[in-house]
Amino acid sequence: MPVAGSGKGNPAYSAYRLLWTAIDWVYPPHCAGCGAFGERFCRSCLSQVVEIRPPYCRKCGQPTDDLELCPICRSSSPAFDSLRSWAIFSGPLREAMHRMKYRRDLGLGEVFGGALAGFYRSLNWHVDLVVPVPLSAGRMSARGYNQAALLAWPLALACRTRYNPGVIQRVRETPSQVGLSLEERRKNVSAAFCADPRQVSQQSVLIVDDVATTGSTIEACAQALKEAGAARVYGLTLARALARNRSDYTSADAPDGLMLAAENVKVNKDRPNIF
Ligand SMILES: [Zn+2]
Ligand SMILES: [Zn+2]
After folding, report:
1. 4 occurs within a structural domain
2. What is the distance in A from the centroid of ligand 2 to the CA of 77?
3. Is the pLDDT of residue 251 over 60?
4. Are 176 and 136 in contact (CB under 8 A)?
């Protein structure tokens, strides 16, 4: 799948993509979204991806009714300068991301890293350094790879931006965020990260993750990076999980602005060809 407009002329990125083309030739893939033979993520599944389009909160990118700050960003100003996500965490994309994270479907990093690079370019952010949200040492040794790095590395290659996964570390194990309220999520990841001031001081840093829900993990990373002297911190995730009902955010002050379903988000009919 060609990634139009991203990484053109970058030999390292071309070599990276060529490697995956060769692997596909030797081991023909099945679609991670529907199982169809021949592509890692087929055209049919791609057509079902729901890209996030305005209106959304201008700070955290959470879909809202307007381009103002969402209730969360109004009540507590985030440490990150901006957070955006490419698409809604649903359908074949959700299935494929699950395979990328838990089933070692590593070739999806090339597919979705390219998509994310195209989206990133449309944002016109100035970034000095790309870093993935780190896993803890325990989770890294159990899984063997970091799914956020599968996305961040090709994005950095495609955009010719410095990549250094070592500048931020997870200094304590954090339980899974699944099923936690906004407040519980924030508490769960609070002070979980530490950044290297020698690497990030006065730098504009892009932190990349696979999926965001409340943005708590990106926020915790941004706090660590800002404490280490980063000038600006941007967050980028492939997907955004939307709360469908109040039970997804059990906090008493969960704002109604978050109670959105995927069907309420505008589907992009003229999606740019970034694959
Ligand atoms: Zn498919
Ligand atoms: Zn917001």
Report:
1. no
2. 9
3. no
4. no
